[in-house]
């Protein structure tokens, strides 16, 4: 996470390497999955990770009914508490689909 913090605080700073970005995204998404165990919501941060989390009805096949999808920078801002779910949705950088997708907000930030 330290490799991406300055870039998260100020987008004009040099961007982290792809490897650093991937590691930070995967670590925080997997931390969310560990702290909010379950499989009723799928969190997607392409191209790096997709995790299932939040207790409730399990999803096993086809398109999941509750999906959270965003880009890596937005995800890291959410994961660190530098951005709220409401602001990300309003800004169009976070897409929530399904009645339970918004429940991830209670598990953020993860770091």
Automatic annotation (TrEMBL):
TM region positions: none
Domain Bacterial SCP orthologue: 18-110
Alphabetized Pfam families for the sequence: SCP_3
Protein name from the UniProt record: Bacterial SCP orthologue domain-containing protein
Record organism: Mycolicibacterium pulveris
